[in-house]
Amino acid sequence: MCLRKAREFPKAIDEIAQALRVRPSYKHALFELALSMLDAGRPAGAISVLEKLLNLDRRWPRIAYWMQLAHANQKRSQDKLEAMPVGHTPSGVPMRKPGELPRTPEQAQNDHLVTEAIRRGGFVERAGVIHGIDHYVLLGVSVDHTEEELKRAYKTASRKAHPDKNGGSNHAFQAVAAAYETLSEPDARALYDEGSDIKRDLREDGSEGPSWGEQVLRAYFPEDYPYEPFGDPYERKRQVAEERRQTIPPAPNGEGIPPGGYLQSCKGCAIVHGQASTDEWLRCTHCLTGQGSKFDESSIKLGSCQEDEWITNHFGRLMCETAPGGGSIDTLPETDKTEL
After folding, report:
1. What strands, in cross-sheet order, belong to the sheet with 295-301?
2. pLDDT tens, 240-258?
3. What is the average per-residue pLDDT within 17-25?
4. CB count, 10 Å around CB of 223?
5. What is the rounded distance in angstroms from the CA atom of residue 118 to the CA atom of residue 9?
6. Phi and psi at residue 319, in whole multiples of 5°?
7. Which ranges of the chain does DSSP label H, i.e. alpha helix?
8. pTM
9. What is the DSSP string of 304-320?
């Protein structure tokens, strides 16, 4: 654990490999290996190790939580990769090999050393994106950190990401701040770890399917869920409720909502407050999904867009996109600021 906490992952993996050569079913060593993989940004490898641990002991403490966290980090990395245009290179970060997320030279070197340690240990990583970037990796903090360790990691990461530092930028600095805000708040961290931010799949009736965390639990712990030989008994009920919701007219847009492309296809928009009194969100009850007249409800935290971005509606989901011309909202023509 000391080597892992010191972020000396190759040495930590080498030590664990030695222990597992003597006792291949040493559960504590397997668990420490899984945490080392997560801390090193290798969620695919962590999943493989956790699956082996699960086969040995289905009652291992919090095994369901760790499985959810590993799968959530893997899914986020995969989604980021799929959303990244071919040849796109974020500011200041060179593109690496095809099929991998962009890495800094320092990250690339660390990845190489971890890969070599994994090979030396004879471990196998699950197929998929193996070099993940999540809140823990971004801050450089362990997944089982203490409050003091989180604070120290945040100070170090924020200094490196500061716009005045070489290699820093406003985007990187804001990403570090957002990661710390999530991990420092227990409820927000719990939701993040189980993947509540991951977009849900849609059922045949157009309603949202189970959360990502629930999908993971159903896959590994089916005994905890009722057997449904004829499918979901509440699917028709949800379908009727959704049909009724689609007939509800939107309320007028509230005062003070920001300009943006979403105004062309979203209605019933207003500014609402989050759990923290200082948090403000834009919430629209009727955003067109691109499927005829169907709409969905969506929210986005105000202030999450960059200076050259504005809020748009992407198939029923509010998100930040580069404003027309790549300029500030204040420079847009008045026709682009007008509500429908």
Report:
1. 266-273, 280-288, 295-301
2. 777 788 888 999 999 999 9
3. 94
4. 7
5. 10
6. -155, 170
7. 2-5, 9-22, 27-39, 43-56, 63-83, 105-120, 135-139, 147-161, 170-183, 186-193, 212-220, 235-246
8. 0.63
9. -S-TTEEEEEETTEEEE
Instruction: Summarize pLDDT for 47-83 with one digit per residue, the tens.
Output: 999 999 999 999 999 999 999 999 999 998 888 776 6
CA–CA gap between residue 235 and residue 207 (Å, rounded): 9
Q: Which residue has the tokens 């993996």?
A: 13
**Which of 139-143, 216-220, 234-238, 284-288 is the least confident region?**
234-238
Q: What angle do CA 43, 25, 140 make, to 5 degrees?
A: 30
SS3 state at 208:
strand
In the block, tokens 């804001």 appear at 174
The neighbouring-strand residues paired with 298 are 284
Structure tokens of 192? 């993040």
CA distances from 53 to 16, 59, 221, 256 (A): 14, 10, 14, 53
Instruction: Give the separation between CA 217 and CA 63, rounded to whole angstroms.
Output: 10
